[in-house]
Design goal:
The complex is a heterodimer of chains A (111) and B (118).
Chain A: E1 4-7, E2 10-13, E3 19-25, E4 31-38, E5 42-51, E6 54-57, E7 65-66, E8 76-78, E9 87-94, E10 101-102, E11 106-110
Parallel strand pairs in A: 2-11
Antiparallel strand pairs in A: 1-3, 3-8, 4-5, 4-9, 5-6, 7-8, 9-10, 9-11
Chain B: E1 3-5, E2 10-14, E3 19-21, E4 24-26, E5 32-39, E6 46-52, E7 60-61, E8 64-69, E9 74-79, E10 88-96, E11 107-108, E12 112-117
Parallel strand pairs in B: 2-12
Antiparallel strand pairs in B: 1-4, 3-9, 5-6, 5-10, 7-8, 8-9, 10-11, 10-12
Classes of the chains: A mainly beta (111), B mainly beta (118).
């Protein structure tokens, strides 16, 4: 089954404690992105990757890091999480110019 | 920069009736794509319908259709014969043509929460 998976689905942590949210896709898509969803703002792109070892900032990259060492994986790293990063996070993958396929979402709470 | 506006934060409709969700966008580009995504309580983002800006014909997918007015920069979604399973948050999204969009980025509106009542 073609899909994008994310882990964990729910995470509660404290300010400053480094965390990683994993994302994996099995569709051999070259493009992968991370979005955050906040009430009234829709989804906003954090980072994207066009292929292995090629990443760039989206609209709201501050406080986040990513890496793309393999085509299928695109982890999101919060080195020092803060309460304003409490949000719902989505990973997505796509072929260029086509609709994006989203993962199930990760609900992150930073206390 | 592109912006997408959904002016109706919440709407409700009776089962089996028709409802229209509004979306307007602002762009200086001529080639782009527009999408409607559905987000049910499970939080999964599900593509409902896609429209290419160069196509004058409005896209249709079963009970879902759009009214695409390029000059007015309007892209509304019509849901016919509403069903209880249509209850969800609906997001309108804009994507520049791939040659102008290095990150394949989608720009989303703030969403419309639709409640279908029995």
């Amino acid at each position: 089954e073609a899909q994008v998976t994310q882990n964990p689905r729910y995470l509660i942590t404290v300010t400053g404690k480094k965390l990683t949210v994993t994302c994996s896709q099995n569709m051999n898509h070259e493009y992968m992105s991370w979005y955050r969803q906040d009430p009234g703002l829709g989804l906003r792109q954090i980072y994207y990757s066009m292929n292995v070892e090629v990443t760039d900032k989206g609209d709201v990259p501050e406080g986040y890091k990513v890496s793309r060492k393999e085509k299928r994986n695109f982890p999101l790293i919060l080195e020092s999480p803060s309460p304003n990063q409490t949000s719902l996070y989505f990973c997505a993958s796509s072929v260029r110019g086509n609709e994006q396929f989203f993962g199930p979402g990760t609900r992150l709470t930073v206390l | 920069a592109q912006t997408v506006t959904q002016s109706q934060p919440e709407m409700s409709v009776q089962e089996a009736e028709t409802v229209t969700l509004s979306c307007t966008y602002d762009t200086s580009e001529n080639n782009y794509y527009l999408f409607w995504y559905k987000q049910p309580p499970s939080r999964q983002m599900i593509l409902v319908i896609r429209q290419e800006a160069y196509k004058q014909q409005n896209a249709t997918e079963n009970r879902f259709s759009v009214n695409f007015q390029k000059a007015a920069k309007s892209f509304s979604l019509k849901i016919s014969d509403s069903q209880l399973g249509d209850t969800a948050m609906y997001f309108c999204a804009f994507m520049k043509h791939e040659f102008l969009n290095a990150g394949n980025m989608l720009t989303f509106g703030g969403g419309t929460r639709l409640m279908v009542k029995p």
